Amino acid sequence: MTAIEQTTIRAAVRDGIARGVAAIGLAGVALIHLLDLPGQLSDTPYMFYLYLALMVSSVVLAGLLIGTSDGRVWTVATILSALVIVGYVLSRTTGLPQSTDDVGNWSEPLGMASLFVEGSLVSLGSGVLLARRVRGESYVLLAADAVEIA
Question: What confidence tens digit (pLDDT) does each residue in 64-81 have?
């Protein structure tokens, strides 16, 4: 096996593991918000719809990451997770419109789980995107083409 083939195989395995972990994390985001969904429609209807949009987006992104390693999908997944963290922090500090009952409630179990999963996704996505920028996407693509030709 040539050095290019070994590099390509390692990159493919690394990419597959990262995509799998991210897909599981995105499914976790959807599940956490599904568990927190009851009561949102009557208390704060806009939060109910934001939760639904987040859950659908998370599942769609998880499906896309299973099928592709497109940098745009990684970027959207990373930004989505970061925005959810921002929303959580705002809900615990200043409160959100029509929802100030969670101000100061930092120890809520689902919130802690949410921060862990979303923080992990931001770290993973940022790492993948940064590594691609440092290594150069073209290097990986050239190595993959070389294996297909051989």
Answer: 999 999 999 999 999 999
pTM score, two decimals?
0.84
Euclidean distance between CA atoms 55 and 48, whole angstroms:
11
As beta bridge partners, residue 96 has 99
Question: 86 and 79 in contact (C-beta within 8 Å)?
Answer: no
Over the chain, what HEC string results? CCHHHHHHHHHHHHHHHHHHHHHHHHHHHHHHHHHCCCCHHHHCHHHHHHHHHHHHHHHHHHHHHHHCCCHHHHHHHHHHHHHHHHHHHHHHHCCECCECCCCCCCCCHHHHHHHHHHHHHHHHHHHHHHHHHHHCHHHHHHHHHHHHHC
Residue-wise pLDDT tens digits, 10-26:
888 889 999 999 999 99
